[in-house]
Amino acid sequence: ENLRSAGGFVWSGSSAQAMVTSNGFCGTSSSTEFGQGAEISMEDSDGRLPEAYDYAVARMKEDLPSIESIAKTVAERGRKQLGSGPVSSQRGAMLVDKRVASRIIGTLVGPMSGGSIYEQRSCLADKLGDAVASEAFNLLDEPHLARAMGSRLYDGDGRPTVRRALVEAGRLNHWLVNVYYGRKLDREPTTGGASNLVVPPGSRSPEQILKDLDWAIQVDGFLGGNSNAATGRYSFGIRGTLFEKGEAVAPISEMNISGSIFELLEGFSEAANDPWLYGSCRSPSLLFDAVQFSGQ
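RESULT FIELD:
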């Protein structure tokens, strides 16, 4: 009865490319892409018009979730926003939904680029080999996953791609340095950009994790905000659900999280067992401790 509008969308495409470099490299590749999604607009009792959407993309059409499951997710996310608002500012646990975990991962990966490091606008410039997260956190660059969106055999310099543990047990192992910036930095190049970013899944479901927490906010959307690659500081608007002892208590909106990406990742405690497979960032839901929430 609160539905204002609803719509669905599908797309598909294919591409092919050839790359020839002056050092004699010649490579060709081709790919396909299929996607589908849905979006709705709701009418809240206070006159607001909250919106919700969901979509999935895959190399092969048969790898997509059913449109019925996407529609169900959109409907659930829309209903959760009705009556939402801020709660009192507090420091507590945050479970980031797998669909939006890429926002956190991207805040860490961006400063890994060779360009940022050479131009002295990276908070990771002096962190190679150091701890940048808790020992529970691992981040892999996996270029050879079958049918994955970011898979590739060679990078933008024509160099063969290899699997790398970018962050292992919390320690930063690699920057993302192409040939050009490798010369500038006098370092052996790795690769100019990531392929499939993978956070290894844990053993428990999000529901099991939430049951063990007295107070937690499950974040299923980031609204605006920004991050500074040079300092590692971030500020994001969030929406989601407040949970107490595993029970949903209130829908959340008009709140922010802020702080340092290092402090956030130092508080990483667990990955759920629900990896997101419909993009190049293949992360499960992620649990962080002692996050600063700003609300009322």
